[in-house]
Amino acid sequence: DLVSAQHNLMRLSLASGKQQDAMAIAREVQKQRPKQGIGYLLEGDIVASRKSWGAAEEAYRAGLNKAPSSELAIKLHGVLVEGGKKAEAERFAASWLKEQPGDSIFRQYRAEFALLNGDWETAAVQYKVLLAATPENPAFLNNLAAVTGQLKQPGALELAEKANKLAPNQPAFMDTLAMLLAEKGDLARALALLGRATQADTKDLGIKLNYARVLVQASKKPEARKELEELAKAGENFPGQAEVARLLREL
Length: 251
What we know:
77% helix, mainly alpha, 251 residues
C-alpha cells in the first residue's frame, strides 16, 4: 500500500500497454484511500494517456471533491484546455484561486500558462501576487518584467535589472533585460548582454535570434548575417525560421 510504488507500477503498466492492469491499481488506491484524491489522479492520468479528455476531467474532478490538490487542479485545467473547453478552463482557474488563494503552485502554473499563451494581462496579475509573497524571486521578477514590457507599462526595466542583480549571468534574465534596453535605445549594453547570453547558452536559439535582431537594429549587418545564417542551418528544429528569413531578406 505504498502509494509511490503503486504510482510507479501504474506507469510501468501503461508503458507496457497494460491499461487494465493500470486501472486496477488506480481502483485499488481509491479503495485504500477513500478520503484522498490520489486514486482519482491515477485514474485521470490513465484515461488522459489515451486522450479521453472527458473521462480524465471526471476523474480529476472526483479527486478534487475528496480533497484540495494543486496537482489535481493543474491536471484538470490541462485536460479542459486539451478538450477544447478553454473558457471553462479559465473559469475553473479563476474559481480555484479564489477558493485557494494561497496555492502558489497552481498560481505559478497559471502565470506560466498565461505567459506561454501571450495572455499578458493574466500573467501580470498572477506574477504580481506571487512577487508580493516572494519579492526577491528572480524568476518571477524576470517574467513580470517581460510581461510588463509586452504591455508597454512602466517599471519593466527596473524589474529586469533587479532580477539580474539577484541572479547574475543567467542567459534568460540577460535576454529579457537586453531586449528592454534595446527598446529604450541602449543598444551597446543590450548587445553586450546578448553576446554573453548566447555564449552561456548556445542551445537557446531564441536568444540568438534576439541577438541578431538587435545587431540589425544597431546597423551591424555583417554580424547579424552571420548569426542569422547559423540559425537558418537549424532548419525545422527552430520554429523561428520565418523571422530568420525575413531578417535575412531585409539585410
